[in-house]
Design a protein that fits this description.
The two termini are 17 Å apart. The protein has a 7-stranded mixed beta sheet with strand order 5-6-4-3-7-8-9, sandwiched between helices. Strands 1-2 form a two-stranded antiparallel sheet. It has one domain: 3-Layer(aba) Sandwich (Rossmann fold). 26% of the residues lie in helices and 36% in strands. The chain is of the alpha/beta class and 170 residues long.
Length: 170
């Protein structure tokens, strides 16, 4: 199945000059969605993943079923100010300014093996920040998985110390 053909391009979203890769056309197709999740999960089968940390919001779409398939728990990585209990926060650079992600301080026990999942890697900032959060809490980043990589933005270079797996590259 050609998953790349199931992803819609939306020009000039969220701003002029950007071609947005819309996964909603893939995830509404039961076979396409299943295949995407299976490819991502199968890559990490047998690696004794304790937890899957997925980045808000589209990362949840893939992270939760991957956690289920791997028999792992799930960590919701959110934008700052969205989690109810005590958190750890990590800031990262955007093209114009900064942003941050957070997770609950008690989300990870030292030594746990963590897989980070998001739908797409662009510049790599949120994934790198998530990896730093995992490591701050004593977790081991086993891998970082994405359905889509925008290769022309070279975001994987920010993650070169990790095992990065992508399914589709543009």
């Amino acid at each position: 199945m050609d998953l790349a053909k199931m992803i819609r391009d939306v020009p000039d979203f969220p701003k002029k000059g950007i071609i947005f890769k819309d996964i909603t056309t893939l995830i509404k197709d039961p076979e396409g969605f299943r295949e995407a999740v299976d490819i991502l999960a199968d890559h990490y089968t047998g690696q004794e993943i304790d937890l899957v940390a997925a980045v808000e919001a589209r990362g949840y779409i893939f992270g939760a079923p991957i956690a289920y398939k791997l028999g792992a728990g799930f960590i919701a990585v959110r934008k700052a100010g969205k989690l109810p209990a005590e958190t750890v926060v990590e800031e990262y650079e955007l093209e114009y300014g900064t942003d941050s992600v957070e997770m609950h301080r008690d989300a990870i026990e030292p030594g746990q093996k963590i897989l980070i999942v998001d739908d797409l890697i662009a510049t790599g900032g949120s994934a790198a920040a998530t990896a730093r959060l995992v490591e701050t809490l004593g977790g081991e980043v086993v891998g970082i998985a994405f359905l889509i990589e925008l290769g022309f933005l070279h975001g994987v270079e920010k993650l070169k110390e990790y095992d990065v797996f992508t399914v589709i590259e543009y």
